[in-house]
Amino acid sequence: MNTGLGDAMNLAWKLAAVIGGCAKGDLLDTYEPERMAFARKLVATTDRAFQAASSEGRVAEVLRTNIVPRIVPRIIRTKIGRRVFFRALSQTGIEYRTSPWSGKSVGAVRSGDRLPWVAPARTGDTDNFTPLRSLDWQVHVYGTASPQVRSGCDERRLPLHVFPFAERATAAELRQDALYLVRPDGYLGGVFGAVGGVSDLAEYLDLHGIRPRST
Questions:
Q1: Is 116 part of any domain?
Q2: What is the spatial distance between Cα 151 and Cα 85, in angstroms, rounded to a whole number?
């Protein structure tokens, strides 16, 4: 189900963007390379799991009835184990770093990655996923947005969301004052440094003919 929803989201916003004249047509060419690699990996993993579960023989039986039931629960009880299982089952670990539409990057969180979730820094604030409900291109800054960044986004009518660079942003490995260009599906089209980021952002938008739906 998660795979199907991911496929639908990936294709739907791209079709809407191209049909609406908000992006160049080659955006549609990114659907297959972004989703096919994971689909093949999923099918291969499912096949191996089915073979292991249905294999005959004493060794396979011992693995199913003794080893796996004892080891897996212990792994899940660890912090790393829970994180690995969550990312695998939720498919939040999928990334598109090699996509033709993944631009420049700075820091650990790179273009093509899914935007990391950051909880509100203060009671009453919104988290950084709330603006994604607009399903439009937008820029996130964690820290301070310079006047140049603000004017650059205003000129492009590109929504700008500024969040405090607090402990939770640091834990998510986000870089202070960097420009995170977020796609409609919550993935990063580009990550640009605080210095020169406005020109890099403009270059990316012009290269791909991106125009937010709100214009």
A1: no
A2: 42
In a domain, 172, yes or no: no
CB 158 within 8 A of CB 138: yes
Q: Are strands 188-192 and 160-163 parallel, antiparallel or unpaired?
A: unpaired
Asked if the structure places residue 141 within a domain, the reply is no
Radius of gyration of the chain (CA): 20
Task: Note the pTM of the prediction, 2 decimals.
Answer: 0.82
Helix (H, G, I), strand (E, B) or coil at 120: coil
Does 213 fall in a domain? no
215 residues of the chain, pLDDT tens digit each: 788 888 999 999 999 999 999 999 999 999 999 998 776 776 655 655 556 556 666 765 666 576 667 776 777 678 776 666 556 555 667 999 999 999 999 999 999 999 999 999 788 889 999 999 999 999 999 999 999 999 999 999 999 999 999 899 999 999 999 999 999 999 999 999 998 999 999 999 999 999 977 54
What's the structural domain count of the chain?
Answer: 1
Q: Which domain holds residue 30?
A: 2-90
